[in-house]
Amino acid sequence: MVKEYPMSTSSLERPKAILLIGSLVLVVWLARISIALALPALGFPVPTSSVGMQATHAARIIKAEMAHLRHDAAKGDADAMYRLGLAYYLGDGVAQDFKKAGLWFRKAAAKGSAVAMDGIATLYDHGQGVKRDNRKAMTWYRKAAATGNASAMDSLGMRCTIGHGVPKNFQKAMYWYRRAAALGNTDAMINIGFLYANGQGVPKDDVRAKVWWHRAVAKGKVLAGMEIGMRYEMGNGVPQNYREAVTWYRKAADKGSPLAMCAIGSLYTVGGYGVQQNYGKAMAWYRKAAASGSGAAMLSIGDAYEHGLSVPRDYKRARIWYQKAAASSDLGVRALANQSLAVLTAKGHGANSASKIPPPPRTHSLATRGRAPTTQSIQIIAYYRRQAAKGNVDAMNMLALSYDLGAGVKRDLKKAIFWYKKAAVAGNANAMVFIGTFYRYGHGVPQDIKKAKYWYGRAAARGNSLGKKYLEELQGTLKSVIHH
Question: Fewer Cβ within 10 Å of end Cβ, the chain: N or C?
Answer without folding.
Answer: N
